[in-house]
Design a protein that fits this description.
10% strand, binds magnesium ion, binds adenosine-5'-diphosphate, ABC transporter transmembrane region fold, alpha/beta, Rossmann fold, 580 residues
């Protein structure tokens, strides 16, 4: 249900309405810009006519002073045109940037709201591309494309009407080619767009091929597969070369045809126009106006044809963004019950008949489990049996399909995410570190430590006996632990361990948290765990015996069912019999 579509479908009118809603607050700015566009269009249409008038009435009649005034007027008109263009770009650019800013914030708010399973079922690359590229495409739409589109449209319509009005015969002659051009555009549009899309796609797959290759470079070398890597990249490059060559060819041809039509129309106007001037059907000024306008008529046609594709791409981008915005979280926080569902002061977590599955098949079946304050629990079971799943249910990363999970007497669903994470420290099986230093990672999402200075944080670390763990980092709190650091998996586990302990959790869940540290460090962990306040509950998923030995209760999970195991001997038996 949280799977994003690869290819979003476009419903033009609905999309347009949604986009209009997005720029609602900037409506006056947009209207202003549109008025300026209209003004420019009028200047484009009427200035050649004005030049024609100047020719007929002033130059040919030799009125020097009036000519001088008229030229100054003409210059002023062009100045107005430039100023208007400038303000269009300013105003509309602001609208574009505003809108993208708003959109990105909206997406982030949404991502914060969405459950973990959303991130499980979507590649982060795709999300990043939606947040970055698709919003940028929309920025282009607002800041540039729409203005050019309307300007071109106004110019074509205005010039077409004006020329036909000025002289029907010459008018039809000069704009008539638009009909075959229009037919040509419609006929080739789909084909050419496909060719261009294939060229863009092949560029996309080339870059993903390269990035995949670089990510797996070690694997390629270990398996002596360099040849394989080279061949794949080469194939991608060749493919991209062929497709982009074809694309640039058809684009060139199209451009040529539009130019040809413009030039042909100019020739027609000159040939017939001169004849008409000779026959005194039109004045020389009118002919000049015609010549100037014919050129301005065919140019925007070319722009328009290319913009149609851009606009369609923008709409697709909007759909891709909107798909995220429309998603609803299924982990809504519910109203807290008036009375406790379950009242036993000693119990912190209680799972009642919990069923859960990621898809139709159940991973957990009918799980009943009680976690009491201050007790230590061990959960064992084969790989893939649902240990991590069970642990993440306690953090409410997923909701049960049926059954209930209760925290301190109330339904887990009635707690806000921060209320849950205040009480439960979770050390994930796969250490998750944020970009930055050890200090930043320890403070991350911790409201109590957030504002501490370095020395205050150090004191907190010492108070919790974590100093020795910290000493394992050469640069102490300043150690860089981000994505590009060279920390081993074990060292990353040290960070997440410290981070969890520093939260002073009432319940500490450790999902194979010591699987990659040495025995000495593990003993250190154990000592720290033993020094936690007596009412801290511990839920430990582990393979190692010494961890299990310390537990008050041991549970085995297999085939989706969880059962309590009476003594260590039985566990040893099970472990010995199974493969792990
Ligand atoms: N995000 C997920 N989407 C779909 N299936 C999943 C997901 N995470 C785990 N599973 C499946 O659920 C089962 C239990 O996984 P997990 O809880 O990680 O097992 P364990 O921690 O015991 O090794 C496995 O079959 C695994 O493939
Ligand atoms: Mg696991």
């Amino acid at each position: 249900m949280y799977q994003l579509n690869k290819t979003a479908k476009t419903n033009f009118i609905k999309t347009m309405l949604e986009i209009a809603g997005l720029v609602k607050e900037n409506f006056s700015k947009l209207t202003f810009a549109l008025v300026l566009v209209l003004l420019n269009s009028l200047i484009t249409i009427f200035s050649p006519y004005f030049i024609g008038l100047i020719t007929d009435e002033l130059i040919l009649k030799g009125l020097r002073y009036e000519l001088f005034v008229a030229l100054i007027l003409l210059f002023s008109i062009y100045l107005v045109y430039s100023l208007s263009s400038y303000f269009q770009i300013r105003v509309i650019g602001k609208v574009g940037v505003d809108t993208v800013h708003k959109l990105r914030n909206k997406i982030f708010e949404k991502l914060n709201e969405l459950p973990i399973s959303f991130f499980n079922s979507n590649k982060s690359g795709d999300l990043i591309s939606r947040i970055n590229n698709d919003t940028e495409v929309l920025n282009g739409l607002f800041s540039e494309v729409l203005v050019r589109f309307f300007l071109s449209f106004f110019n074509i319509a205005g010039i077409g009407i004006f020329l036909t009005f000025l002289n029907p015969k010459l008018g039809v002659l000069s704009v008539g080619l638009i009909i075959p051009l229009f037919v040509y555009t419609i006929a080739t549009n789909r084909l050419f767009r496909n060719i261009n899309k294939k060229s863009l796609d092949s560029l996309g797959s080339l870059s993903s091929e390269i990035s995949e290759g670089l990510n797996n470079f070690k694997t390629f070398i270990i398996f002596n597969k360099r040849e394989f890597f080279n061949e794949r990249i080469k194939k991608s490059i060749d493919d991209n070369f062929r497709k982009s060559t074809l694309a640039s060819f058809v684009n060139g041809v199209s451009s040529l045809i539009y130019d040809l039509a413009g030039n042909l129309a100019t020739v027609l106007v000159i040939t017939f126009g001169l004849q008409m001037v000779k026959n005194v059907e039109i004045t020389l000024g009118t002919l000049i106006a015609f010549l100037l306008l014919v050129n301005r008529f065919y140019e925007p046609l070319k722009t328009l044809a290319s913009l149609v594709g851009t606009i369609q791409r923008s709409l697709a981008s909007w759909d891709r963004i909107n798909e995220i915005l429309r998603m609803e979280t299924n982990l809504k926080v519910t109203q807290k019950e008036n009375e406790k569902i379950y009242s036993n002061e000693k119990t912190m977590i209680k799972m009642i008949d919990v069923d859960f599955g990621y898809d139709h098949s159940l991973v957990l079946k009918d799980v009943n489990l009680e976690i009491e304050k201050g007790k230590t629990y061990a959960l064992v079971g084969p790989t893939g049996s649902g240990k991590s799943t069970l642990a993440s249910m306690i953090m409410r990363l997923h909701d049960p399909v049926s059954g209930k999970i209760i925290l301190n007497g109330y339904d887990l669903k009635s707690f806000r995410p921060d209320e849950i994470s205040d009480q439960i420290g979770f050390i994930l099986q796969e250490p998750f570190l944020i970009e930055g230093t050890l200090e930043e990672n320890l403070k991350y999402g911790n409201r109590k430590l957030n504002h501490l200075t370095k020395s205050e944080l150090l004191k907190e670390i010492e108070n919790r006996n974590l100093k020795e763990v910290l000493n394992k980092f050469r640069n102490g709190l300043d150690e860089y632990v981000g994505v590009n650091s060279y920390l081993s998996l074990g060292q990353k586990q040290l960070v997440t361990f410290m981070r969890a302990i520093l939260r002073d959790p009432k319940l500490l869940i450790m999902d194979e948290a010591t699987s990659n540290v040495d025995t000495k460090t593990e003993k250190l962990f154990q000592a720290i765990l033993d020094s936690l306040p007596a009412d801290t509950s511990k839920f430990i998923i582990a393979h190692k015996l010494n961890t299990i030995r310390k537990a008050d209760e041991i549970y085995l999970i297999a085939n989706g069912r969880v059962e309590k195991i009476e003594n260590l001997q039985v566990v040893l038996e099970i472990i010995r019999k199974s493969d792990y």
